[in-house]
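Q: Given only this backbone (62 positions), what sequence would you predict?
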């Protein structure tokens, strides 16, 4: 259950950062010219890599 919550927090934080907080395009402006499919694939990959990093760092405590 805790892993599901962590993945949900990661997903929500990335989506909120890309579409709501980065209004000037300073952090995510380089993907602005990408297609919608490319952005979705990037976001999914980002979440997967973030999840692996989380699991790798917290594996001792799971």
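A: Predicted residues:
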């Amino acid at each position: 259950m805790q892993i599901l919550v962590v993945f949900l927090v990661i997903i929500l934080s990335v989506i909120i950062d890309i579409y709501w907080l980065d209004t000037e395009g300073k952090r995510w402006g380089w993907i602005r010219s990408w297609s919608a499919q490319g952005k979705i694939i990037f976001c999914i990959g980002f979440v997967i890599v973030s999840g692996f990093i989380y699991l790798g760092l917290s594996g001792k405590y799971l």
